[in-house]
Amino acid sequence: MKRFLFLLLIVFAGLSYLFELDEFLAKHFKVFGNLKESYINTYISVSQKVANHFEHERLIRELQNENLELKEYKVLYNTTISTIDNLKNLLENIEIPEINSKIEVIRVLSYVHFDDFTSVWLDKVPTDNKILGLISENYAAGISMIKNGKSIGLLNGNKDCTYAVFIGNEKNPGIATSNDESSDLLSVKFIPVWADINVGDEVITSGMDNIFYEGLRVGKVVEIKDFPEMKVATIKPYANPLKKRFFYTYEANSNIENQENSTVENLENSKIIENKEQK
């Protein structure tokens, strides 16, 4: 019985469409016309809302993706601006010695060990095993050397960071190294016992170790201890290298070294010639 009624309904609907029964009812019975118009308007309205909903979802997804991309660009922009500002400040404060020299800007990559802020990896391609001085704001900040085929920076306060210095107007020699009592201070050891040094004397690099040039400021003496074999001075350094992302290195031009080597060779050759002539 149910199948017969369902089949009858399908046949009735087909005949209605075939003989345009809906148009006949709409013309002669106003109620059917209103129902038809209301159905069509409702269908169009619902279809439009559904389409708008899916369109809004698509736009939201696109805007979310664009927002994520813009955030990435913003982070990159801020990082670049910060890098440029750091380089600008670094380059503005560079004082090149009045000799033929090579200046190179080096960027800090990361810490070598997370429990030691005084040793960092540097963005520098190793070329030789020469130790170079790291300079920040025209102050001695540490040294650069090669470790495991990579450039490493040993900043002031590191126990392996040492370089030659002069103390006071008399240029008393010593070796700057880490301080055992405070990471904010440095020690100058191996000062001759006869050296006349005082609290407040300025400490500068001596250049005698070929790491820094002579005259680069290191810090001021805040304490002096006398020992039987030497004096040890505690100094407050000028540089604060732990907060820096860029340093620059100084290196004497190789042409100067070549000239010095050739001068030594010429002197040796001249001595050999003189000895031969005397014989």
Automatic annotation (TrEMBL):
Coiled coil: none annotated. It comes from the Bacteria. InterPro entries: Cell/Rod_MreC_2, MreC, MreC_beta-barrel_core. GO terms for biological process: regulation of cell shape. Signal peptide: none annotated. Residues 158-241 form the Rod shape-determining protein MreC beta-barrel core domain. One of its GO terms (cellular component) is plasma membrane. NCBIfam families: PRK13922.10-6 (NF010507). This is Rod shape-determining protein MreC. It comes from Aliarcobacter cryaerophilus ATCC 43158. The lineage of its organism: Bacteria, Pseudomonadati, Campylobacterota, Epsilonproteobacteria, Campylobacterales.
